[in-house]
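User: Last request for today: this protein with shikimate-3-phosphate, please.
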Amino acid sequence: MSRATVRPGRPLRGEASLPGDKSITQRAILLGALAPGTTIIRGANPGADAAAALGIARALGTVVRRGSAGEIVLRGGTFREPERVLDARNSGTALRLSMGLLAAQPFLSILTGDASLRRRPVDRVLVPLRLLGADLSARGGDRLAPVVVRGRPLRGAEVETGLPSAQVKSALLLAALQAEGTTVVREPAETRDHTERMLPLFGVPVRRDGLAVSVTGGGSLHGTEIDVPGDASAAAFLAAAAAIVPGSDVLLRGVGVNPTRRAFFDFLVRAGADVTMHDARDAGHEPVADLRIRHRTLRPLEIGPAEIPGLIDELPLVAVVAAFARGVSTVRGARELRVKESDRIASVAAALRAIGGAIEEREDGWSIEGAGRLRGGSVETRGDHRIAMAFLVAGLRAAEGVTVDDAAPAAVSDPGFLPRLRKLAR
Ligand code: S3P
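Assistant: Here's the final one, the structure of the complex with shikimate-3-phosphate:
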């Protein structure tokens, strides 16, 4: 465990760039491993989740090396039956996407993860994959990892995912591009669309029609080059920091502003922060921009079910920001947070209370009475990277600062988080 403390200091000033997007990096690694030929990934996320995806690619026989400028170079299309259990560690994306990736491969794979990941559901992927003819089973009545995948030929199908999850959708698409015929995946609400944007770069056409995505198998998948934009979720922590600390004025460069990922910045605007977008550009398959965030007095907000998929990873941070707005904010329809890296509804409620916040925990969210300030104190991160980072941000504006029992989980998505935050506050 590595304790860390953040205390109030100067306003945040200056510029920062972000690590590459974690979701996009993991998709690029897994697709690059599957696709024959060479795939070059520039600006990959340096965190532990992406390393877990790379470990899986290697265990499947993919040759991986670093290019001279730090890029990841994969020689794909050479899968062989792995000799050992594939370990997705803390990464739900690596685990669930690999289930789809491996379902059509002509061999047996066993996938698992760390203690946190082994508590998170996999039936959401396993059950719809069976509609394509996949043969998977899992512990606890097919609910939990380890997962056993007996790869076999798949056939296209029409699938309703039943829940808004980009991991479920992406796992199905990875299986679909190896299946015979066409697969249509329909989700109940829009989720991040990085897989749909990336597949054409690998030679796989994608049809999109409202909330339905279709892919036809048997195409000519090939290696490609990917530029990974800055991680919008990593940017959200710095943006929140600038929004809550009076006098702050920060420029975040090269942030991915995909409409399915930028809801937190819209939330900050609605809460009264001054957020402006500059130099909007297209980084190949994903939109990118520089974001300037200036502190303003914040007002409370209501977040309802329709906004949850777009804000899913930023909800702990929404709670922290709400604590600094004067008045009652509510978050509803976020039951999904109970099955993230920790039970984030409970983790956030306990952590915010521990630093003097007034928060009421509901089954599917919180009600937070912001007072414009917090006392500070010590917080348990429960091994969850986003809890660690959200409450270190809170320390910038909490009278006594905030100590987290373990800041190490931040390295899951952003190993450079604390130095970057401290540099802006210097
Ligand atoms: C992700 C999708 C989301 C998100 C996770 C990354 C992805 O999960 O919370 O951090 O890379 O597709 P769900 O699909 O479970 O909502």
